[in-house]
Design a protein that fits this description.
The structure is a homodimer. In chain A, about 75% of the residues lie in helices and about 0% in strands. By secondary structure, chain A is mostly helical. Chain A has a domain of about 130 residues: Tetracycline Repressor, domain 2. Chain A binds a DNA duplex through helix 3.
Amino acid sequence: MKNNDRKEQIVKTAAQLFREKGYNAVSMRDLAKDLGIKAASLYNHISSKEAILAEVILSTARDFTEHIDNTFLEEKSSVKKLEEIIESHIDLTIEKANFVACLNNDWMHLEEKNLNDYIKMRNHYESTLRKIIIKGMNLHEIEPQNPELILFSLLSTLRTLYLWYPKNKHIEKSVLSKELKNNLLKGIITI
Amino acid sequence: MKNNDRKEQIVKTAAQLFREKGYNAVSMRDLAKDLGIKAASLYNHISSKEAILAEVILSTARDFTEHIDNTFLEEKSSVKKLEEIIESHIDLTIEKANFVACLNNDWMHLEEKNLNDYIKMRNHYESTLRKIIIKGMNLHEIEPQNPELILFSLLSTLRTLYLWYPKNKHIEKSVLSKELKNNLLKGIITI
DNA sequence: GTCTATAATAGGATAGAC
DNA sequence: GTCTATCCTATTATAGAC
């Protein structure tokens, strides 16, 4: 097996285990067992357990960052931008649920430098979303409310979609997208 | 110090540490250190680390269960009941944020029997809330949508309020309550 | 009720053979 | 690239002195 395939496989399997049991409850022996190798062999592909976590979380954080940066720059209404953001969360949740779950649950187990990078990206994400909300408010597209509360109620739902989706896989993505937008936006959009 | 005071103090301190670092990242030495005693002394008050977690989580789950059971039995509209449920989440989050955080993050580290009890209570909670939503839908108080999605988008926000509140303590509870109800319900209530 | 000492186990990581 | 063997440390929990 080529080195990079193996590494990818390790990271992917780790994401699944971390999601199920939490980072600290998964041992390198557990991970190796799931891959059908011995724990020592893992270190030919990765430098440490934390490096795996960093790969899982930071790659996913970069995905989210890229999406919102693109959306931010578009020439569209704020409401349309919020809809695109909702869609990007649905897409990423469906595409890599275990990675998104890890990002949500285990970021605090990153060490120094990786933790810093993650927090920077998260702050950037929230601040970009905040700008979109406030601009929408100024242009009377969005109800004048506490923007922090809107930011929170939106993100809290989008960030935990990974908990809900597996139990409701039967729902069409297009239906989910439409209903979730309705659900989250109708409360904050001027009629 | 009386035995029960000490036990309460242990559970409360544990909840704070679990919230900050996650159950598995907190050692009995860490916990003892915060209490100014040695790890071995903890076992005069509690039987195991997991028993502390169970106390934290199950007591909080019982609080939530009691609240929703009371609300369910009242002679009020479904929307009024949802407002009461939102309020109970705000109250419990403010009152015992660390406990609520643990319940959300560390329930999967409960063992056999306690895990079972927790999941039973959670299922009961969700099924009661589901009934309220569906009744409201039948009475045309709530927009006809996928009830599972409404259930999820409500709960996802209410359950993670503990993440948001500490950063926004300056907001008046009455304002938070009013704006959050607006935010969460206006999207699902018939105009 | 708290201490010291220690048992028993599990964890991350490395060395070196193949 | 994977293995066995092993190091070193950390962990939960108990025994028994004070």
